Amino acid sequence: MLLDFNGWNYERCKGQAVSYVARGRGKPDRIANSVRTTMAKGNLDRESLERMLGEIESETVRPFFGSPWNQPERLDRFRAIKDGLVGEVTPSGKPREGGSEQ
Length: 102
What we know:
Layout (H helix, E strand, L loop, with lengths): L1 H22 L4 H13 L5 H16 L10 H15 L16
């Protein structure tokens, strides 16, 4: 049962990020905060986060970067999400206290 719940959280977090990257829906800081909170509760680990970001990049960014669908704004939005997540989470998957390195 827990495995299914973690899978649901993974899909929810990925869906929020994909929606922002593809269409600009939502705010990157809110999406990053939601993912960090999910990680802090132990419902998403660092490995899953890295897998999720890789999938988003390969499925939602790369196919639309270049001819014929040139949409470079997707890459900009992806970077905003990635920077908001990877830069704020310690290797253990826990958010840094105070948002800065210690």
